[in-house]
């Protein structure tokens, strides 16, 4: 089990095995969570949504709400057609499926 020693300034060095497992890089902030009295867990702090600015390319065309709604309907129709049974097509007129 990895261990660390607290310095006189209250600092520790997180063991390399733990840093690798958590994907910790220099500058990453850590959040501490109290599990119960005297026990804590920690994990890397989630980044701000504002840090994601620019991670996606700009679109040449910004779709309208109507275009997005139509795309959703078209895809739903494709999924429906792909999962629809062909049982009715296989029986002759007047017979139960």
What is the fold's blueprint, element by element?
Layout: H1 16-22, E1 30-36, E2 39-44, H2 65-83, H3 87-90
Antiparallel strand pairs: 1-2
How would you characterize the overall build of this protein?
With 97 residues, the chain is an alpha+beta fold. It has a domain at 51-84. 31% of the residues lie in helices and 13% in strands. Strands 1-2 form a two-stranded antiparallel sheet. The protein is elongated, with a radius of gyration of 28 Å. The protein starts with 15 loop residues before the first helix and ends in a 7-residue tail after the last helix.
Helix and strand content put the structural class at alpha+beta
Beta-strand content estimate: 5-15%
**Shape type:** elongated
Helix and strand element order: HEEHH
Radius of gyration: 28 Å
Distance from first to last alpha carbon? 64 Å
Give helix % range: 25-40%
What composes the largest sheet?
Answer: 2 strands, antiparallel
Residue-averaged pLDDT? 86
Summed up, what is this model?
The protein is of the alpha+beta class and 97 residues long. It has helices at 16-22, 65-83, 87-90, and strands spanning 30-36, 39-44. It has a domain at 51-84.
Supply the key terms:
97 residues; alpha+beta
């Amino acid at each position: 089990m990895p261990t660390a020693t607290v310095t006189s300034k209250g600092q520790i060095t997180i063991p390399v095995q733990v840093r690798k497992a958590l994907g910790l890089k220099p500058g990453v902030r850590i959040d501490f969570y109290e599990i119960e009295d005297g026990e804590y867990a920690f994990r890397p702090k989630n980044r701000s949504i504002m840090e994601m600015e620019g991670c996606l390319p700009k679109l040449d065309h910004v779709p309208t709400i109507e275009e997005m709604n139509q795309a959703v309907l078209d895809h739903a129709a494709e999924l429906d057609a792909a999962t629809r049974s062909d049982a009715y097509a296989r029986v002759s007129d007047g017979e139960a499926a």
